[in-house]
Amino acid sequence: TVAFVRKIEYRKHSSTLDVSFGINYPKSYTNQSIDFLLDVNRKVKDLRLQFLYHPITANGTVQHAVFKRGIDVCSFMRNTRTDRFLKSIYDYATTHTNMTLKCPIYPGSYKFWDIRPSDAPLPSFLPNVDSMLQFIYHSQVREEKILDVKVLAQLTVAFIKKIEYRKHSSTFNMSFELNNPKSVTNQSIDVFVDINRKVKDLRLQFLYHPIAANGTVQQAVIRRGIDLCFFMRNTRSDRLIKSLYDYVMAHTDIPLKCPLYPGSYMIWDIRPADAPVPSFLPNVDFLLELIYHSEVRAEKMLDVKVHARLVRFRIVLKHNSKILNMSCTLDNIDSITNQRVTFEMDMFRELKDMKANFSYYVIGLDGYALNHIMTRTVDVCAFVKRPTMDRFVKNIYDQMKRDSRIPTKCPIPKGPFYIRNVAPTSVRLPGFFPESSFAFDNNYFTGINSEPMVECRFYGKLTRVRLVAVGTKVESRCYNKHLNITCEFHQLHSPLNQTLECDVVITREIKDMKLIVKYYVITLNGLAQTILLKRTLDLCFFLRNPRSDRLINTIYNYLRERSSLPLRCPMAVGNYYIRNLKLSDVPIPTFLPEADFLLEEVFRSEVKHETLLEFRFHGKLLIPYGTKVEFRSKVKHIQVSTTFHRRDSTMDQTLDMYLNITSPLREIKLQFNYYPITDNNTVRTALFKRMVDLCFYIQHPNSDRLVKIVYDYVREHTNLPHKCPIGAGNYYVRNVKPSDFPVPGFIPESEFMMELIYRNEVRREVMLEFRFYGKFIRMLGVL
């Protein structure tokens, strides 16, 4: 979380000090800075400071101070360790001023420059709401107040994703323009309103709905019904609406009283980041609904829906500008599984030693940071030589070094370094960490005196996730001319956004129906195994008593919300549909193995002894994902090359391989090995090995079922000949997608290396070596 200053107020009570200030980049959250000019007109021998922190409610009321300090400034400057909290602010301010920091303070002009609120250390126990910071300076000897400074800050902002409106009457015409739609801090809205007739009465229905992780709009947590004509005469009648009304009225030319006369009006430069956000609102996506209607005419005039989310910045970064310059960005902030963190740094001088401290805190419901759950302090120079010395730190280090340029030995040279695309979800956390909000400190020090270099605090939340099914194919077959169904997949290449839509046509009334549900695990040869799960039920009875089968009921409840299918028997003639059935929202039982599967549903009529419909859904729960490819030629008459496309995409990752053979290959042996890789990047003993005579195998592919899985897929994407000898020429294997390969049920969920070694047994030489490094990914959704 970072602080953002909205306003500064000061009041001079004495001729001792003159103060002026300037706010640079006032609308930027990360680049905002403040310059203070201070003129001391007489010698100051004693100075006391009253420091107060006040939360501000949604209606703008300043509450009692939750944090208060009274200190003797002269004594504090001689011994800064007397107050740890103020010392953190003092240490930052001392690097941005030309003032002599000791008493007495002599007359002169002094300056505090480039004070960045986003760099200010914020205690984790402070509530995440708007606040007022008050500094009161006074002289105890003279018993007079010298200066009173108030800083109003904001910690949470709103960000609009979409606006919808619907006109129900000819009274209003409305249009809008969303400026800087992708900017959190600079987003603004301009609204244009045309009133076509005189409006004597107007009522507003104000609704605030949280939106669940699966996109479901929940019940309104705020509901207001307001007579707008009365409210504009008595704005204090509703404090919550008044906080929004006061902001909007400063940016509009709409009349502030009834009746509203015909004309064209405008509401300009409404910035969601400036709108007051009540502290009790949950930090989730939300829907703000504004319904305008006339009570006299009993008609709805206008319905406006604003889809938005609350954004809180989750990384606090401080750096020692004498040693390095560092910046941090958090991408995909609203995504659970795709968040990425990037650090860019520029080292100004060589470092001979460095120490790192890692601390993990649990944050309670009241916002207070508890005692450390875990703390680690390591010598960085020793650690990079032997990373296995600390397993917890190594888990973090392994993620940091994947796409980075970081020092690998000491001394650390000066120059640019970076750590890019670190995925928080990929970091392995100890199982004893509780499922709660947390703060993770990552601090670095150098020198004999442990001079601070970087202090980084990452705020987050441990969230339980569940498996998500990824669909690969849908089949449907109708055996009766009175029933027809068509289904279509959408977002095939986006696992978490896959949706299924079906249209059902019933041309004859159906009075009875049986449902048989079967779940198969797919074997290596693509055939279905013995049924893992089977349910047979009377569908008409189930529709009357959905709780009669808990497993089917979990899917039925989700399906019922997104379809127009009949809810009882007999099923009448008509056209029905299933819309926006999101696979990532369908609950997956925990006892199902993480393998390819087939879900089959058979609908029968017991009276007529006939099958009406068969529906089959093919999918997978575990997806291979490539991280690195090695393809080498060991002989002169074969040249090879590879290209890895879209390597950051889970579903669209592809691999192209090219071979140039200058002399025929008459006999080839293939050694096929699969190795799991442990958490410390050690390659284990091969899980399975195969030695195959490739020329014989091409003629008899059924001789080895395991190798046949790879061979059948590759054969569809290559121009290599299907018999020996393989003549001289240019060959390719194109568009190989790791996510399309079936995953055997016995393979562990871990990182792996698949190795293919091609040998010439006559010459006893290795010709080609191919190694594919990857890992298995479970597609996860939030519970």
Report, as a whole number of angstroms, the end-to-end distance. 25 Å
| Derived structural class | mainly beta
CATH topology of the largest domain: Ganglioside M2 Activator Protein, Chain: A
Helix tally equals 10
Strand content range: over 45%
Helical content stands at 10-25%
Task: Please provide a written account of the structure.
- Pfam families: DUF1091.
- InterPro entries: DUF1091.
- The protein has 783 residues and is mainly β.
- It folds into 5 domains: 4-154, Ganglioside M2 Activator Protein, Chain: A (Distorted Sandwich); 157-311, Ganglioside M2 Activator Protein, Chain: A (Distorted Sandwich), CATH 2.70.220; 315-463, Ganglioside GM2 activator (Ganglioside M2 Activator Protein, Chain: A, Distorted Sandwich); 467-620, Ganglioside M2 Activator Protein, Chain: A (Distorted Sandwich), CATH 2.70.220; 624-782, Distorted Sandwich (Ganglioside M2 Activator Protein, Chain: A).
- It contains 10 helices and 43 strands.
- The strands form 11 sheets. A 5-stranded antiparallel sheet has the order 1-8-7-4-5.
- The longest helix has 11 residues, at 84-94.
- The radius of gyration is 34 Å and the shape is flat.
- The two termini are 25 Å apart.
- The model has no long low-confidence stretch (mean pLDDT 79).
